[in-house]
Specification:
The protein has about 475 residues and is α+β, with helices and mostly antiparallel strands. It has 15 helices and 14 strands. It has a 6-stranded antiparallel β-sheet with strand order 3-2-1-6-5-4, with helices on both faces. The longest helix has about 30 residues, at about 170-205. The N and C termini lie far apart (about 105 Å). The relative contact order is 0.07.
Length: about 475
Protein backbone atom coordinates (compact mmCIF):
# COMPACT_ATOMS: atom_id res chain seq x y z
CA UNK A 1 0.00 0.00 0.00
CA UNK A 2 1.35 3.41 -0.99
CA UNK A 3 1.75 5.78 1.89
CA UNK A 4 0.02 9.11 1.31
CA UNK A 5 1.17 12.41 2.74
CA UNK A 6 -0.99 14.95 4.54
CA UNK A 7 -3.78 16.55 2.61
CA UNK A 8 -2.15 19.96 2.88
CA UNK A 9 1.08 18.68 1.36
CA UNK A 10 -0.80 17.09 -1.53
CA UNK A 11 -2.65 20.37 -2.10
CA UNK A 12 0.65 22.25 -2.09
CA UNK A 13 2.15 19.90 -4.68
CA UNK A 14 -0.93 20.29 -6.89
CA UNK A 15 -0.67 24.10 -6.61
CA UNK A 16 3.01 23.99 -7.54
CA UNK A 17 2.29 21.81 -10.56
CA UNK A 18 -0.50 24.14 -11.66
CA UNK A 19 1.81 27.10 -11.24
CA UNK A 20 4.45 25.41 -13.38
CA UNK A 21 1.82 24.98 -16.10
CA UNK A 22 0.74 28.62 -15.88
CA UNK A 23 4.36 29.68 -16.03
CA UNK A 24 4.84 27.55 -19.11
CA UNK A 25 1.95 29.22 -20.91
CA UNK A 26 3.12 32.66 -19.82
CA UNK A 27 6.61 31.90 -21.15
CA UNK A 28 5.10 30.72 -24.43
CA UNK A 29 3.08 33.94 -24.71
CA UNK A 30 6.23 36.04 -24.21
CA UNK A 31 8.18 33.99 -26.75
CA UNK A 32 5.42 34.24 -29.36
CA UNK A 33 5.22 37.98 -28.81
CA UNK A 34 8.88 38.27 -29.80
CA UNK A 35 8.54 36.18 -32.96
CA UNK A 36 9.19 38.25 -36.08
CA UNK A 37 7.71 35.85 -38.63
CA UNK A 38 5.36 32.95 -39.18
CA UNK A 39 8.06 30.27 -39.33
CA UNK A 40 9.49 31.33 -35.99
CA UNK A 41 6.01 31.43 -34.40
CA UNK A 42 4.99 27.93 -35.48
CA UNK A 43 8.32 26.42 -34.39
CA UNK A 44 8.04 28.13 -30.99
CA UNK A 45 4.47 26.86 -30.53
CA UNK A 46 5.33 23.29 -31.56
CA UNK A 47 8.30 23.15 -29.18
CA UNK A 48 6.14 24.45 -26.31
CA UNK A 49 3.34 21.99 -27.12
CA UNK A 50 5.76 19.06 -26.97
CA UNK A 51 6.92 20.17 -23.51
CA UNK A 52 3.59 21.20 -22.03
CA UNK A 53 1.79 18.09 -23.29
CA UNK A 54 4.56 15.61 -22.52
CA UNK A 55 4.39 14.52 -26.16
CA UNK A 56 6.93 12.46 -28.03
CA UNK A 57 6.31 14.74 -31.00
CA UNK A 58 4.21 17.88 -31.43
CA UNK A 59 3.46 19.55 -34.74
CA UNK A 60 1.79 22.67 -36.08
CA UNK A 61 -0.16 22.03 -39.26
CA UNK A 62 -1.60 24.38 -41.87
CA UNK A 63 -5.09 23.65 -43.20
CA UNK A 64 -6.03 25.00 -46.63
CA UNK A 65 -8.97 23.90 -48.76
CA UNK A 66 -9.63 20.94 -46.45
CA UNK A 67 -6.04 19.73 -46.81
CA UNK A 68 -3.70 19.45 -43.81
CA UNK A 69 0.07 19.92 -44.18
CA UNK A 70 2.62 19.69 -41.35
CA UNK A 71 4.67 22.91 -41.15
CA UNK A 72 7.02 21.91 -38.33
CA UNK A 73 7.64 19.04 -35.92
CA UNK A 74 9.33 19.32 -32.52
CA UNK A 75 11.66 17.75 -31.54
CA UNK A 76 12.85 17.79 -35.14
CA UNK A 77 14.54 14.35 -35.08
CA UNK A 78 11.67 12.16 -36.20
CA UNK A 79 11.57 8.37 -35.94
CA UNK A 80 11.72 6.96 -39.50
CA UNK A 81 8.65 4.86 -38.71
CA UNK A 82 6.38 7.87 -38.76
CA UNK A 83 8.48 10.55 -40.50
CA UNK A 84 6.69 9.85 -43.78
CA UNK A 85 3.34 9.88 -41.98
CA UNK A 86 3.99 13.40 -40.66
CA UNK A 87 5.31 14.67 -43.99
CA UNK A 88 2.38 13.46 -46.10
CA UNK A 89 -0.52 15.94 -46.59
CA UNK A 90 -3.98 14.49 -45.97
CA UNK A 91 -7.49 15.65 -46.82
CA UNK A 92 -10.56 15.99 -44.65
CA UNK A 93 -12.51 13.65 -46.89
CA UNK A 94 -10.13 10.86 -45.84
CA UNK A 95 -9.90 11.83 -42.15
CA UNK A 96 -13.28 12.28 -40.39
CA UNK A 97 -11.63 13.75 -37.29
CA UNK A 98 -10.03 16.49 -39.40
CA UNK A 99 -13.35 17.18 -41.09
CA UNK A 100 -15.02 17.62 -37.70
CA UNK A 101 -12.19 19.85 -36.46
CA UNK A 102 -12.62 22.14 -39.49
CA UNK A 103 -16.42 22.17 -39.41
CA UNK A 104 -17.03 22.40 -35.66
CA UNK A 105 -13.64 23.75 -34.52
CA UNK A 106 -13.57 20.76 -32.19
CA UNK A 107 -10.50 19.09 -30.70
CA UNK A 108 -10.21 15.31 -30.69
CA UNK A 109 -8.45 12.44 -28.91
CA UNK A 110 -7.56 9.00 -30.21
CA UNK A 111 -5.92 6.00 -28.48
CA UNK A 112 -4.56 2.78 -29.93
CA UNK A 113 -4.25 1.21 -26.45
CA UNK A 114 -6.24 1.41 -23.23
CA UNK A 115 -5.03 2.57 -19.82
CA UNK A 116 -3.48 -0.84 -19.18
CA UNK A 117 -1.48 -0.70 -22.39
CA UNK A 118 -3.55 -3.33 -24.19
CA UNK A 119 -4.68 -2.68 -27.80
CA UNK A 120 -8.20 -1.31 -27.95
CA UNK A 121 -10.89 -3.47 -29.44
CA UNK A 122 -12.22 -2.59 -32.91
CA UNK A 123 -15.26 -0.36 -32.62
CA UNK A 124 -14.36 0.91 -29.14
CA UNK A 125 -16.02 4.34 -29.12
CA UNK A 126 -13.91 5.49 -26.18
CA UNK A 127 -10.79 5.07 -28.34
CA UNK A 128 -11.81 7.89 -30.71
CA UNK A 129 -12.05 8.05 -34.47
CA UNK A 130 -11.36 4.68 -36.09
CA UNK A 131 -9.20 6.15 -38.85
CA UNK A 132 -6.96 7.91 -36.33
CA UNK A 133 -6.75 4.76 -34.20
CA UNK A 134 -5.73 2.71 -37.24
CA UNK A 135 -3.12 5.32 -38.13
CA UNK A 136 -1.62 5.15 -34.64
CA UNK A 137 -1.35 1.37 -34.93
CA UNK A 138 0.42 1.67 -38.29
CA UNK A 139 3.15 3.92 -36.87
CA UNK A 140 3.46 2.16 -33.52
CA UNK A 141 2.17 5.00 -31.33
CA UNK A 142 -0.35 4.96 -28.52
CA UNK A 143 -2.19 8.27 -28.34
CA UNK A 144 -2.86 11.40 -30.41
CA UNK A 145 -4.71 14.66 -30.06
CA UNK A 146 -5.41 17.69 -32.24
CA UNK A 147 -6.77 21.16 -31.46
CA UNK A 148 -7.75 23.86 -33.96
CA UNK A 149 -5.87 27.11 -34.47
CA UNK A 150 -8.55 29.69 -35.25
CA UNK A 151 -7.36 32.97 -36.80
CA UNK A 152 -9.82 35.77 -37.56
CA UNK A 153 -12.79 33.46 -37.25
CA UNK A 154 -11.50 30.71 -39.55
CA UNK A 155 -9.63 27.47 -38.92
CA UNK A 156 -6.06 28.31 -39.94
CA UNK A 157 -4.51 25.01 -38.83
CA UNK A 158 -4.11 22.67 -35.90
CA UNK A 159 -1.79 21.75 -33.03
CA UNK A 160 -1.13 18.02 -33.24
CA UNK A 161 0.61 15.81 -30.66
CA UNK A 162 1.64 12.14 -30.35
CA UNK A 163 2.66 9.89 -27.48
CA UNK A 164 4.31 6.49 -27.50
CA UNK A 165 3.17 3.38 -25.54
CA UNK A 166 5.40 4.25 -22.57
CA UNK A 167 4.09 7.79 -22.01
CA UNK A 168 0.47 7.22 -21.04
CA UNK A 169 -2.61 8.45 -22.84
CA UNK A 170 -3.60 12.02 -23.53
CA UNK A 171 -6.48 13.27 -21.40
CA UNK A 172 -9.09 15.99 -21.64
CA UNK A 173 -6.75 18.15 -19.56
CA UNK A 174 -4.11 17.73 -22.28
CA UNK A 175 -6.70 18.78 -24.86
CA UNK A 176 -7.34 21.94 -22.82
CA UNK A 177 -3.60 22.65 -22.74
CA UNK A 178 -3.36 22.12 -26.51
CA UNK A 179 -6.27 24.53 -27.03
CA UNK A 180 -4.47 27.19 -25.00
CA UNK A 181 -1.33 26.68 -27.14
CA UNK A 182 -3.50 26.97 -30.26
CA UNK A 183 -5.12 30.18 -29.01
CA UNK A 184 -1.76 31.77 -28.18
CA UNK A 185 -0.39 30.76 -31.58
CA UNK A 186 -3.51 32.18 -33.30
CA UNK A 187 -2.88 35.54 -31.67
CA UNK A 188 0.75 35.51 -32.82
CA UNK A 189 -0.25 34.58 -36.38
CA UNK A 190 -2.81 37.41 -36.53
CA UNK A 191 -0.18 39.87 -35.29
CA UNK A 192 2.50 38.70 -37.70
CA UNK A 193 0.05 38.76 -40.60
CA UNK A 194 -1.07 42.29 -39.76
CA UNK A 195 2.52 43.50 -39.45
CA UNK A 196 3.33 41.89 -42.80
CA UNK A 197 0.36 43.65 -44.41
CA UNK A 198 1.47 46.98 -42.94
CA UNK A 199 5.04 46.41 -44.16
CA UNK A 200 3.66 45.58 -47.60
CA UNK A 201 1.58 48.77 -47.70
CA UNK A 202 4.45 50.93 -46.47
CA UNK A 203 7.35 49.37 -48.37
CA UNK A 204 5.86 47.99 -51.60
CA UNK A 205 4.73 49.68 -54.79
CA UNK A 206 1.09 48.64 -55.36
CA UNK A 207 1.32 48.68 -59.17
CA UNK A 208 4.39 46.50 -59.69
CA UNK A 209 4.77 44.74 -56.34
CA UNK A 210 8.40 45.87 -56.13
CA UNK A 211 9.74 47.60 -53.02
CA UNK A 212 9.35 51.38 -53.10
CA UNK A 213 11.82 54.27 -52.71
CA UNK A 214 11.91 53.99 -48.92
CA UNK A 215 12.85 50.32 -49.14
CA UNK A 216 15.48 51.10 -51.78
CA UNK A 217 17.04 53.78 -49.54
CA UNK A 218 17.12 51.37 -46.60
CA UNK A 219 18.67 48.65 -48.78
CA UNK A 220 21.35 51.06 -49.99
CA UNK A 221 22.20 52.21 -46.46
CA UNK A 222 22.45 48.62 -45.23
CA UNK A 223 24.56 47.64 -48.24
CA UNK A 224 27.04 50.47 -47.65
CA UNK A 225 27.44 49.37 -44.03
CA UNK A 226 28.30 45.85 -45.24
CA UNK A 227 31.76 46.92 -46.41
CA UNK A 228 31.64 45.07 -49.72
CA UNK A 229 31.31 46.65 -53.17
CA UNK A 230 27.91 48.26 -53.68
CA UNK A 231 26.38 49.06 -57.07
CA UNK A 232 23.31 51.17 -57.70
CA UNK A 233 21.53 51.11 -61.03
CA UNK A 234 19.04 53.82 -61.98
CA UNK A 235 16.68 53.00 -64.83
CA UNK A 236 13.67 54.48 -66.54
CA UNK A 237 11.27 53.55 -69.33
CA UNK A 238 11.77 55.17 -72.70
CA UNK A 239 8.56 55.58 -74.64
CA UNK A 240 6.11 55.33 -71.72
CA UNK A 241 4.51 58.70 -72.50
CA UNK A 242 3.95 57.67 -76.10
CA UNK A 243 2.34 54.41 -74.98
CA UNK A 244 0.10 56.23 -72.50
CA UNK A 245 -0.93 58.84 -75.08
CA UNK A 246 -1.61 56.43 -77.92
CA UNK A 247 -2.76 53.25 -76.18
CA UNK A 248 -4.05 54.39 -72.81
CA UNK A 249 -2.76 54.32 -69.24
CA UNK A 250 -3.88 50.73 -68.68
CA UNK A 251 -1.43 49.63 -71.37
CA UNK A 252 1.16 51.93 -69.79
CA UNK A 253 0.63 50.22 -66.43
CA UNK A 254 1.14 46.84 -68.09
CA UNK A 255 4.39 48.18 -69.53
CA UNK A 256 5.59 49.24 -66.06
CA UNK A 257 4.78 45.78 -64.70
CA UNK A 258 6.82 44.28 -67.54
CA UNK A 259 9.78 46.49 -66.62
CA UNK A 260 9.45 45.36 -63.00
CA UNK A 261 9.58 41.74 -64.14
CA UNK A 262 12.78 42.40 -66.11
CA UNK A 263 14.42 43.95 -63.05
CA UNK A 264 13.30 41.04 -60.88
CA UNK A 265 15.09 38.73 -63.30
CA UNK A 266 18.24 40.81 -62.94
CA UNK A 267 17.97 40.75 -59.14
CA UNK A 268 17.43 36.97 -59.17
CA UNK A 269 20.80 36.54 -60.90
CA UNK A 270 22.50 38.79 -58.34
CA UNK A 271 21.69 37.30 -54.90
CA UNK A 272 21.16 39.83 -52.16
CA UNK A 273 20.02 42.53 -54.59
CA UNK A 274 16.97 44.77 -54.23
CA UNK A 275 14.97 45.92 -57.24
CA UNK A 276 12.61 48.82 -56.53
CA UNK A 277 10.30 51.29 -58.23
CA UNK A 278 11.27 54.84 -57.32
CA UNK A 279 8.16 56.41 -58.82
CA UNK A 280 6.63 57.10 -62.21
CA UNK A 281 8.78 55.35 -64.80
CA UNK A 282 11.90 55.33 -62.60
CA UNK A 283 13.32 52.11 -61.15
CA UNK A 284 16.52 51.18 -59.35
CA UNK A 285 18.59 48.16 -58.40
CA UNK A 286 20.83 47.94 -55.32
CA UNK A 287 23.46 45.19 -55.27
CA UNK A 288 26.02 44.27 -52.63
CA UNK A 289 29.04 41.98 -52.99
CA UNK A 290 28.90 41.86 -56.79
CA UNK A 291 31.60 43.38 -58.97
CA UNK A 292 30.61 46.28 -61.22
CA UNK A 293 31.51 44.31 -64.36
CA UNK A 294 29.29 41.40 -63.25
CA UNK A 295 26.34 43.69 -62.61
CA UNK A 296 26.83 45.38 -65.99
CA UNK A 297 27.00 42.04 -67.79
CA UNK A 298 23.84 40.69 -66.16
CA UNK A 299 21.98 43.92 -66.89
CA UNK A 300 23.00 43.94 -70.53
CA UNK A 301 22.11 40.30 -71.04
CA UNK A 302 18.75 40.30 -69.25
CA UNK A 303 17.55 43.68 -70.55
CA UNK A 304 18.59 42.67 -74.06
CA UNK A 305 16.96 39.26 -73.71
CA UNK A 306 13.57 40.62 -72.66
CA UNK A 307 12.69 43.53 -74.97
CA UNK A 308 9.72 45.64 -73.97
CA UNK A 309 6.52 45.76 -76.01
CA UNK A 310 5.20 48.75 -78.00
CA UNK A 311 8.66 49.95 -78.99
CA UNK A 312 9.57 50.96 -75.42
CA UNK A 313 12.98 50.35 -73.88
CA UNK A 314 14.91 50.53 -70.62
CA UNK A 315 17.69 53.08 -70.21
CA UNK A 316 19.95 52.62 -67.21
CA UNK A 317 23.09 53.95 -65.57
CA UNK A 318 25.39 52.26 -63.08
CA UNK A 319 27.41 53.66 -60.17
CA UNK A 320 29.71 51.61 -57.93
CA UNK A 321 31.68 52.18 -54.76
CA UNK A 322 34.59 50.53 -56.58
CA UNK A 323 34.75 53.74 -58.65
CA UNK A 324 33.40 56.40 -56.28
CA UNK A 325 34.99 55.10 -53.10
CA UNK A 326 33.24 55.50 -49.74
CA UNK A 327 30.22 57.74 -50.34
CA UNK A 328 26.71 58.21 -49.02
CA UNK A 329 23.74 56.40 -50.50
CA UNK A 330 22.35 59.71 -51.78
CA UNK A 331 25.59 60.44 -53.63
CA UNK A 332 25.64 56.97 -55.19
CA UNK A 333 22.03 57.31 -56.35
CA UNK A 334 22.87 60.67 -57.92
CA UNK A 335 25.90 59.26 -59.75
CA UNK A 336 23.81 56.40 -61.13
CA UNK A 337 21.11 58.86 -62.22
CA UNK A 338 23.68 60.98 -64.08
CA UNK A 339 25.05 57.85 -65.80
CA UNK A 340 21.53 56.83 -66.78
CA UNK A 341 20.79 60.24 -68.29
CA UNK A 342 24.04 60.16 -70.28
CA UNK A 343 23.22 56.72 -71.63
CA UNK A 344 19.76 57.91 -72.66
CA UNK A 345 21.11 60.95 -74.48
CA UNK A 346 23.85 58.96 -76.22
CA UNK A 347 21.35 56.45 -77.57
CA UNK A 348 18.98 59.20 -78.67
CA UNK A 349 21.77 61.01 -80.56
CA UNK A 350 22.81 57.77 -82.23
CA UNK A 351 19.26 57.09 -83.39
CA UNK A 352 18.73 60.67 -84.49
CA UNK A 353 21.80 60.56 -86.69
CA UNK A 354 20.95 57.18 -88.19
CA UNK A 355 20.07 57.37 -91.88
CA UNK A 356 19.26 54.68 -94.42
CA UNK A 357 22.11 53.26 -96.46
CA UNK A 358 20.83 55.26 -99.40
CA UNK A 359 18.17 57.90 -100.00
CA UNK A 360 17.75 56.93 -103.65
CA UNK A 361 14.03 56.05 -104.13
CA UNK A 362 14.67 53.17 -106.50
CA UNK A 363 17.27 51.54 -104.27
CA UNK A 364 15.14 52.16 -101.18
CA UNK A 365 12.11 50.59 -102.86
CA UNK A 366 14.19 47.52 -103.71
CA UNK A 367 15.41 47.22 -100.13
CA UNK A 368 11.85 47.56 -98.83
CA UNK A 369 10.61 44.80 -101.14
CA UNK A 370 13.38 42.40 -100.14
CA UNK A 371 12.93 42.99 -96.41
CA UNK A 372 9.13 43.01 -96.54
CA UNK A 373 8.80 39.88 -98.66
CA UNK A 374 11.16 37.96 -96.37
CA UNK A 375 9.19 39.05 -93.32
CA UNK A 376 5.84 38.02 -94.81
CA UNK A 377 7.21 34.62 -95.82
CA UNK A 378 8.61 33.94 -92.34
CA UNK A 379 5.51 35.10 -90.48
CA UNK A 380 2.80 32.86 -89.09
CA UNK A 381 -0.38 32.43 -91.07
CA UNK A 382 -3.08 35.08 -90.78
CA UNK A 383 -3.35 38.69 -91.82
CA UNK A 384 -2.35 40.18 -88.46
CA UNK A 385 0.94 38.27 -88.00
CA UNK A 386 1.89 38.91 -91.64
CA UNK A 387 1.10 42.63 -91.45
CA UNK A 388 2.93 43.01 -88.12
CA UNK A 389 6.00 41.25 -89.48
CA UNK A 390 5.91 43.41 -92.61
CA UNK A 391 5.47 46.66 -90.67
CA UNK A 392 8.32 45.84 -88.28
CA UNK A 393 10.74 44.88 -91.04
CA UNK A 394 9.98 47.88 -93.23
CA UNK A 395 10.07 50.35 -90.32
CA UNK A 396 13.52 49.07 -89.43
CA UNK A 397 14.65 49.32 -93.04
CA UNK A 398 13.49 52.95 -93.16
CA UNK A 399 15.07 53.75 -89.74
CA UNK A 400 11.69 54.55 -88.22
CA UNK A 401 10.76 54.41 -84.53
CA UNK A 402 7.39 52.71 -84.48
CA UNK A 403 4.64 51.18 -86.55
CA UNK A 404 0.99 50.24 -86.20
CA UNK A 405 -1.55 47.84 -87.68
CA UNK A 406 -5.15 49.06 -87.52
CA UNK A 407 -8.57 48.09 -88.85
CA UNK A 408 -11.32 50.39 -90.09
CA UNK A 409 -14.49 49.98 -88.03
CA UNK A 410 -17.51 52.24 -88.38
CA UNK A 411 -15.43 55.00 -89.86
CA UNK A 412 -12.75 54.86 -87.14
CA UNK A 413 -9.40 53.12 -87.00
CA UNK A 414 -9.09 50.53 -84.21
CA UNK A 415 -5.54 49.64 -83.19
CA UNK A 416 -4.78 45.94 -83.57
CA UNK A 417 -1.05 46.00 -82.81
CA UNK A 418 1.76 48.49 -82.31
CA UNK A 419 5.49 48.13 -81.99
CA UNK A 420 8.81 49.29 -83.27
CA UNK A 421 12.45 49.80 -82.48
CA UNK A 422 13.15 51.06 -78.95
CA UNK A 423 13.30 54.86 -78.91
CA UNK A 424 14.82 56.70 -75.96
CA UNK A 425 13.37 60.05 -76.86
CA UNK A 426 10.53 61.08 -79.09
CA UNK A 427 12.35 61.94 -82.31
CA UNK A 428 11.05 63.30 -85.58
CA UNK A 429 9.89 60.72 -88.08
CA UNK A 430 7.63 60.50 -91.07
CA UNK A 431 4.65 58.14 -91.16
CA UNK A 432 3.58 56.34 -94.32
CA UNK A 433 -0.08 55.32 -94.17
CA UNK A 434 -1.18 52.37 -96.33
CA UNK A 435 -4.65 50.87 -96.71
CA UNK A 436 -5.96 47.66 -98.22
CA UNK A 437 -9.56 46.55 -97.76
CA UNK A 438 -10.34 47.26 -94.10
CA UNK A 439 -6.71 47.14 -93.03
CA UNK A 440 -4.52 50.17 -92.30
CA UNK A 441 -0.77 49.94 -91.83
CA UNK A 442 1.27 52.88 -90.54
CA UNK A 443 4.99 52.65 -91.26
CA UNK A 444 7.51 54.82 -89.43
CA UNK A 445 10.42 56.23 -91.42
CA UNK A 446 13.32 58.55 -90.74
CA UNK A 447 12.80 62.05 -92.07
CA UNK A 448 15.94 61.39 -94.13
CA UNK A 449 14.57 58.26 -95.78
CA UNK A 450 13.26 58.19 -99.35
CA UNK A 451 9.50 57.77 -99.20
CA UNK A 452 8.42 58.91 -102.67
CA UNK A 453 6.02 57.27 -105.10
CA UNK A 454 8.28 54.31 -105.86
CA UNK A 455 8.67 53.39 -102.22
CA UNK A 456 4.96 53.94 -101.46
CA UNK A 457 3.93 51.77 -104.43
CA UNK A 458 6.23 48.98 -103.25
CA UNK A 459 4.81 49.21 -99.74
CA UNK A 460 1.24 49.17 -101.00
CA UNK A 461 1.93 46.02 -103.00
CA UNK A 462 3.49 44.31 -99.99
CA UNK A 463 0.45 45.12 -97.81
CA UNK A 464 -1.86 43.66 -100.46
CA UNK A 465 0.24 40.50 -100.64
CA UNK A 466 0.21 40.15 -96.84
CA UNK A 467 -3.58 40.48 -96.63
CA UNK A 468 -4.65 38.60 -99.78
CA UNK A 469 -2.14 35.84 -99.24
CA UNK A 470 -3.60 35.19 -95.80
CA UNK A 471 -7.17 34.81 -97.08
Amino acid sequence: MTRRGPAGARAGRRAAAALDGVRGFALLAHRLDRCAGLDEAVETAAAAAAELLGARRAAVCRIRQDTCLVLTVQPSQVDPRYAEYLATPFRAEDRPALRTLIRDRASWLAHAVDVTGKPVEPGDTDAGDEVEVATLREVGLASALASPVVVNGSVWGQVYALRGPDSGLFSVDDVARAEVVGALLAGAIARVDLEEQVRHLVADDPLTGLPNRRAADNAAEAALEDGREVCIVMADVDGLKRVNDRMGHETGDDLLRTVADVLRRVADELPGSTAARIGGDEFCLVTVGHHRATVAEVLSRVVGGYPLPHGAAISYGLASTAVTGEVTARHLFRRADIAQYRAKRARARAQESAVPATADPAVTAERVVVAGAAAITAAQSGAVPRLCALAAAVTETLSGSDWAVLMERDGDDAAIARGGSPADLERAQATVRLTHRTWVVEIGASVNAATGAQVTTALQALVAIAVDGAS
